[in-house]
Each structure stands twice: as structure tokens, then as C-alpha cells.
Amino acid sequence: MLPIRGKKAWLFRLTAIPMAALLAAHVVIYRRFPGEAGYQFPGTAFLTISALIVVCWEVNLGVFRRLDRTMPFYRTPLRRVGRQVLEGGVLTMLSFGVVFTLISVVGFGGLPSPKGFVTGLFICFGIASIINGIYVGSYLLAVIYQRDPLTAGQLNVRLAEQQRELAPVTAQRPIDTLPDQPAEQPLPQRTGILIETGSQLLRVRPDEIAYFYSSGGIVQLIRADGRKLTTNYDSLNLLVNRLPPGQFFQISRQFIVHLDAVRTVRDDVNRKLTITLEPTLSPGLPAEQVTISRYRSAEFRKWLTEMAVR
User: Fold this and answer.
1) What is the residue extent of each domain of the chain?
2) Opening angle at CA 72, ends 66 and 73, nearest 5
3) Residue 55: closest CA among 94, 2, 106
């Protein structure tokens, strides 16, 4: 997802929370408005609702951020929204019950009335629904109206830079190196990924994997050297959470690709992308071309840009 961050987030909070609390205090609780006879500003209701909105906002934002890491929106949008609404709703209700009860006990010297509790619960539920709607809507708008996205040509330049950095280089030791200077130690290898195949578990390094391909309920592992391995998985969903997210990206329901397997990127119609993968699925093909939908292309550009400049 692409949430509001930094100064914009704080400005949005400072503007939206008081306005929402002011509206709810007058419409739902006090039910009187400036200019009416006997009107007094509902300060207690305003402060109580403001506190509840802050709690709802932070709880849901925490859920969004955690799911952004474990279940990105582009992978399974419907499942993500359902999980987001379910977890956010449950945690919102629990947080509301605790905070509202504390406010009533500390501020008013007793437990809240059933009517007051139900009213507050209704307000909190509405706020949580609005927050979820804003968050999902902001993501869709960011995909449709992406500001200054990198072109396919710029992405190809980044890819070329990445491939040059990864190419083996024979370095010569400087002549004036001191004899007692400790030699540079090689970096430790990344932990391998365990893949179920046949009756065994195969340990494969991430850089040995070009991509995973799913078709007809069969998932194949395509190695970087072109060799194929049939796994025991029947869906890519069983693999997604087991792979390092920084190195792998699920571009469609059929492909999860490693960064090094992406050779070229080309702009397609309707904000789609067409990428070239190596090695190919079939040895006789000159190139393996895969189309990325407009909804995943924005996240793919972001992922490719971040990884290619490391």
C-alpha cells in the first residue's frame, strides 16, 4: 500500500481528527448546533471522541503497516482487504472497550451506560470503516494516477547497473598493502530456501532461483542455469511468504521472479508492463515475455527501483 507519510500524515491527523470529532459530537451525541437556543459547546463529548478517533486511527494504521510487510496489497487484493477489515475491526473494538471504559471511570467516576457504550461503539465502527476506505482508495488512486513513474527505459538502465555490479570482478591487491593487514573476509552466504520436491527437502540459495512458474496446479522452480525442478506445491500462495521479499516479486498468478531473472522492461498499453525473463521456460524460445497488470505494475516499478539501486 501507499499510505500518507511524514509531515503530510501529521497535517492530515491535525485536520481530520478534530473535524470528525466536532461533527460526531454535534450530530450523534449533543444533537444541537451553534445558533440554537441553549446551545453550549460539547467539550466533554468532543475530547472523548477525539481520543477514540486517535486510538482507532493508530490501531488500524498499525494493522496496515504490518500487512504491508506480510501480505502486500498487489498479491491478493481481496484477501488483503478482508484480512485488513477483520483484524482492524477486532482490534478497534477491543481498543475502544478499554479506552472508553477508562475515560468513563477516570473522567466521570463510573462505568459507561449501555446506551453510551453502544453509541461510542457505533462511532468507532464508522471511523474504522472510513479509515479503511481512505487507505484502500489512496492505493488505487496511486496506481491509476502515479506521479512521475520511472519509464521502462529508466528501469532498464537501473537493471543494467545492477547486473554490472553483480558481474564477477577480478580485483588486484594494492602493492603497498601491509603484510600484517588482515585480508577481507568474504560475506556469509544467505540462508537457503527449503523447497519440497518429491519425497525430499531441497535447500536452494536465492541466487540459484530464476523464478517459479505455476500452471495447471503444478509449480516449477526454474533455476538460474535453466534447469527445471517440479515442486510439491500446487499454488504460488504456498511459496510467497517463504521467499525473501526484497529479492522476489510475484508479478502474476503464474510467476514469482527473482531480481536477476528480469532482463528488460517495456511499457505496454493501459499502464501495463511487459518484462523479459532469462532463462526461458522452453529452450527453443528466444525470450520469455510476461505481462504485468496495471495494478501490479506500480508496485513492481517501486520494487525494481529500490532493489536495482542497492
Assistant:
1) 6-144, 193-308
2) 115
3) 94
pLDDT of residue 142: 58
CATH domain 193-308 topology: OB fold (Dihydrolipoamide Acetyltransferase, E2P) (2.40.50)
71 Cβ contact partners less than 8 Å away, ≥ 6 residues apart: 79, 80, 83
CA 124 to chain centre: 25
- From the list 189, 190, 209, 192, the residue with the least C-alpha distance to 201 is 192
- Using a 10 angstrom Cβ sphere, with 0-12 exposed, 13-18 middle and 19 or more buried, the burial of residue 212 is buried
Taking a C-beta distance cutoff of 8 angstroms, is the pair 128, 89 a contact? Answer: yes
Q: At what angle do helices 43-70 and 77-108 cross, to 10 degrees?
A: 150
Average pLDDT value for the chain: 77
DSSP β-bridge partners for residue 267 = 273
Q: How far is CA 51 from CA 9, 32, 54, 56, in A?
A: 17, 21, 5, 9
Q: Contact 260/207 with Cβ under 8 angstroms?
A: yes
pLDDT at 220: 93
Q: Spell out, as residue ranges, where the chain has pLDDT lower than 50.
A: 1-3, 147-148, 166-190
pLDDT in the model for residue 139: 65
Phi first, then psi: give them for residue 211, nearest 5 degrees.
Answer: -170, 165
b/e code 131-166 from CB counts within 10 Å (16+ = b): bbeebbeebeebbeebeeebebeebbebbeebeeee
